[in-house]
Amino acid sequence: MQALLAALLILGPWVAPVTTAAESAATLVTRGSSRGIPACASCHGATGSGNAELGYPRLAGLPAPYIEAQLEALAAGRRQNALMNAVAVKLSAKQRRELAQYFAALPFEPVSPVPARAQSGAGAELALHGRWSQNVPACTRCHGEAGVGVGERFPPLAGQPSRYIESQLLAWQQGTRHGEPLGLMQGIASHLSASDVHAVAAYFGVPPSASGDAPGGDAPPRAGGAAAGDGEPPPGERALPDGEFGKAVLLGRRIFEDPATYAKDYVGNALACSNCHLDAGRRADSAPLWAAFVAYPAYRAKTHRVESLEERMQGCFKYSMNGKSPPLGDPVLVSLSTYASWLARGERVDPNLPGRGYPRLPKPALAADFQRGARVYGEKCALCHGAGGEGQADHGGHAAFPALWGARSFNWGAGMGSITLAAGFIKANMPYSEGGSLSDQEAWDVATFVDSHERPQDPRFTGSVAETRAKYHDGPDWMYGVEVGGHVLGSDSVPPGPTPTGPGPTH
Ligand code: HEC
Ligand code: HEC
Ligand code: HEC
Ligand code: HEC
Fold first, then answer.
1. pTM
2. Which residues contact ligand 1 via a Cβ below 6 A?
3. Cα 234 to the chain's mean position, in Å?
4. For 352-481, where are the alpha helices, taking DSSP H only?
5. Residue span of the structural domain in which 387 resides
6. Which of 236, 257, 281 is where one domain is finished?
7. Domain holding 202: CATH number?
8. Tell me: the pLDDT tens digits for 386-428?
């Protein structure tokens, strides 16, 4: 008891300013200040839920670092909005931080999960599938399933007024909002037409009419959320065939995008096939299924024999998915090859279709370098994949950004562990939505960095790292068995196969 009192006495002076800070933020929010800062609540609502009629954003429950960064951008004019610029310039750095913490801590009832609403139409198509012909991924890939947000840098879209979402996409198009991480949204917005903007804002957002007399944001679930384009066949999605064949195609696609749910017996990590074969296996230069289907059976150096497509995919489960191979004829493999065959319809039988596999880059001018790769990683990859390569889950706990190394990633036997293959994939497809933007040198360097970290053991491990390297990882393409920073890679790997860990940290 005495110790507690003593501790309180010592802590006292430190606790007090925190309380004052909270109070002063609360005062700014509800009453503003004599220095001419208007009450935040007058526009954002007393509960921070925004105003759907006027398109003022929800602030409650947004990540504090995101709010703080936006207040800075609004004060510095990187983000232009007459109403908010006038407010932000009057705030001190300390007030920005305290207000960010205040709003981040406000409870926010997530609005209805978007998938309960209309699943078709142009808005849903962009939100759930993107438009890969223009390098636009699904909005939900970066903003989380149903737009709940990912980590501290990818804000939720759910609960934002549709008018606000629309205004922000237009602001990126017009250049009045910029300076955001990696310029991701500027690039994405530049590919959207006026009707795309309207449709996708309607899909995620709270409609004006839902706000009633109070600030919006806590709108009830509603049907038919996707406005423009309702009823049109979604572009880029050919209608699924009917009958049993169509069911197998659909199951194959589901397994490909979510094997942890649809093929869970064979999966040992938090990855999906589509993490490495983008756009659900359709994207050229990310080893698309249509090009694979017409190339098998084929000889493979890895196994020294001719393999059917199903045998090839058995290997994907064992190595890339760090799981175990489904037996030949298993519905998992049959559905996956049915899906591949459907994607390949109309293609000619040819093992060398342009776009097959990952591109092979010319050798770099300078020998690939771990340190340079670490720098590229910190600047262009850590935002999503995490500083420790651990990946991130969204705020609903669904896998969002895959793990690049560690226990939740592919094992040492997987193709992505080859620096040549990783460099080709990364050059063509990363940073996400900005494929092709790295130099070849950067791609080689960062691939070397990614492939120089521990991951689950090679299932073919002989008991000796040196021997396993000699048998399966000989040559400059593999870091397995190589010493990096005093550690021999492969010497401290967790055993291959399922790990108890979930889809990734959520922060
Ligand atoms: C006069 C109305 C008004 C007042 C008062 C106001 N805001 Fe805003 N706020 C807006 C508008 C409008 C936007 C959207 C700006 C844009 O379109 O870029 C906004 C945007 C924001 C954003 C960005 C949100 C996001 O999701 O990116 C933050 C953060 C913010 N306001 C915080 C505050 C704080 C804190 C206060 C009180 C100190 C405040 N606002 C007072 C109108 C207001
Ligand atoms: C490659 C990742 C990525 C994809 C895909 C993506 N976004 Fe974003 N988005 C971001 C990031 C990062 C931010 C935060 C920007 C900042 O910090 O200013 C953001 C912010 C936003 C905001 C501003 C939210 C706010 O509170 O102000 C809107 C609106 C938005 N995105 C809409 C979309 C829509 C619609 C799509 C799909 C067409 C989409 N985004 C796809 C990365 C992405
Ligand atoms: C805006 C977020 C984002 C950024 C930035 C980003 N990635 Fe990714 N990355 C993803 C997503 C999302 C996927 C999965 C693709 C999918 O499912 O559509 C992915 C997949 C991958 C994969 C294959 C999956 C795996 O676990 O091995 C590798 C390798 C990869 N990224 C490397 C990189 C590298 C290297 C960089 C930096 C040059 C980078 N990424 C930058 C989001 C990002
Ligand atoms: C960690 C990344 C990763 C994951 C996850 C992954 N793959 Fe792959 N996949 C690769 C790499 C690397 C290759 C070889 C590409 C090359 O040779 O250019 C490949 C090749 C393939 C091929 C042969 C392509 C061709 O043209 O020869 C098929 C088919 C395939 N994968 C299916 C799958 C399936 C099905 C899953 C899920 C069960 C899956 N992959 C999961 C990385 C991955």
1. 0.92
2. 28, 37-38, 40, 42-44, 56-57, 59, 62, 67, 70-71, 79, 81, 83-84, 87, 99, 155, 167, 171
3. 22
4. 370-380, 382-385, 419-429, 440-450, 465-472
5. 370-488
6. 236
7. 1.10.760.10
8. 999 999 999 999 999 999 999 999 999 999 999 999 999 999 9
